[in-house]
Predict the 3D structure of the following.
Amino acid sequence: MLEFPRWKYAIVALVLLLGLLYALPNLYPQDAAVQISASRGSVVDDALGERVRGLLEGQGVTIKRMAREGESLVVRLETTEVQLKAADLLRAELGKAYTVALNLASTVPDWLTALGGKPLVLGLDLQGGVHFLMEVDKDEALNKRINGFADDIRALLRNEDVRYTSVERAAGDVLNVVLRSAEDRERAATLIARDLPALQLEQAQGGEGFGLAARVRETELKTIVDNALEQNIGTLRNRVNELGVAEPVIQRQGESRIVVQLPGVQDTAQAKNILGATATLEYRAVVEGNAYDALQSGRVPPEARVYYRKETGIDGKPVPILLSRRVIASGDQLVDARSGFDPQTGEPEVNVTLDNAGATRMEAFTRDNVGNSMAVVFIERIPETRIVDGQEVRTARITEEVISVATVQGVFGKRFRTTGLESPKYAAELALLLRAGSLAAPVDIVEERVIGPSLGQAHIDAGKLAISLGFAAVCVLMIVYYKLAGVFAVLSLLANIVLMAAVLSVMGATLTMPGIAGIVLTLGMAVDGNVLIAERIREELRAGNTPIASIKSGFERAWVVILDSNVTKLIAAAALISFGSGPVRGFAMVLAVGVLTSMFTSVTVTRALSTLYYGHGRKVTSVSV
């Protein structure tokens, strides 16, 4: 008697139902949309919505739907052509007060989203996106590190009570250190050689005093550039993760360039603002003195520099303040930054965590300066493009703003908070940029390309055609050759496609052309198990066994062979996932999922269908196979 326990039927039904549920979001196409976000000082409210609606409808643009989603206003439109027209109109009308970006908005129902349903993410080759080629400013990276060497030398000489006149940078990568005596020069050379081995020392010729020339070694110069490039790659990856872009490509190209590919991003404005901005904090001591008098007389103390606070004075102009030239701690030493609220005042704040080096310097400063003031300087470098004499010139706008001045109430080091921020949104944006990390050196976008969705749609259509033709050919062959057993195989193959789509969607996998190739290959391999089962049943029937015994024996004996063959495929897929990258890894991931789902459908689902038709006490005289 051919039996299949009821609890197994229940499991098969439940798995197929869940598979159908989580594969369903892939049937909902995305809407072409325009996303409007507020820049600093602007708000997204109902008045903005009415203004946008009036502008678009006045120009004959039909709005499919418009609603506030999170911090942005999303306008859904019928086609990509209408989307581009609407974006141009809104940019001209709203100006720099708002960021207008092209987007693809999901149409998955809310109830399905609440259950965790989400469609497959399409890669750059399918849904389009943007491609950036970025070049790291090597000179700035070297300047930053050489200036750091100068600060290290000054601190070392002060700590060791070595008398010196000056530590100044000469041309190129040379630092001139002027000491008070020959004995001081000898001690300084010993200390620098011990603590700063990256510097090559020699006695300076000519000039006043007893001089040393400290030159950065060639190997160290190369290491500085390489480290800056690697740190920038990590920082860009963190920033892209904050943007929520799935499966981005961020990799090094040559000595000083980085390739960034962002699937699904149709507008470069937002991506360029996030990727190209060099945002960091600097903590500096407040120098006593009247900044207004220093500006009017031009006599700024040598150890100080004039900065401006974000607040404006009575005259509406920024308030100047004198800060020390020496940095206590900088954004490079930030480990974490989270926005929150002051538990006592309820004002927005950013909670900062420093690394060990930054914590040591902060603790040393606060220990000696309890009761004095310390300022927080926010520095942002935003790349810009201007047209000069008909040529495109890439420049950068650098803003330095004192966002907070506070009195040091006690000694602290690793963890502290930054207050005095204007709004919770500003605190969240600041924490995001700081958490993503500051770039070790500025980067300039030397090439950008937008891959339109029409190219992606052509690839998708080609992939759909390949899957459809492959599936149809397999179905016809199985039904013609194996009859009813072939029908069961086709139904299990359909179940396999549904389960594959569901599993990949839940995993948040990105589907690319190599992934589609993996699906087509899986369709061909998934039917192997059904072929083995059908051929084993035929062998048992030819050996003279009864139909029921032949079916039971066919499934039981074929299972061992199916398991062995699929395990070897999984091993190969695991190797490709572990050691491959990019397209190879995507192909292997789809292949691995397809092998696992096919093992379930080709044996369990097919057996459930066969038992449902032939089993449960039914008298069987022949098997259609």
